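DM from R.C. (forwarded with permission)

"hey, sorry to bug you on a friday — could you get me a structure for this? deadline for the figure draft is monday and I only need the backbone to look sensible"
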Amino acid sequence: MAIYSSSIIAPGQDIVSCDLDGDAVLLDLGSSRYFKLNRVGAHVWNHIGSGATVGDLRRSVMESFDVDADRCVRDVDNLLTALRASGLVKIDDVPAS
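My reply, with the result:
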């Protein structure tokens, strides 16, 4: 399923998170499963739910980390796809007008 730059990302229901020395730990209270994100994943997670679009997340990662645009798009989209598959986020797939 495509992820558009204009898509809005929201945290899933019953997900709590905490910082762990720059990384993030997510706990799905519904399934009692937990997940660890590295510092780039934690950076993305910290912007989810603020109304940011996927494009905003990509730009923020490129501005904060030494990564080229193609790799950033691929890595952020792969992360969001994995988070969605695990029920940690909801993606409102809104194609750009």
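R.C.: lifesaver. The longest strand covers residues 15-20.
me: no worries. The beta strands are 8-11, 15-20, 23-28, 33-37, 89-92.
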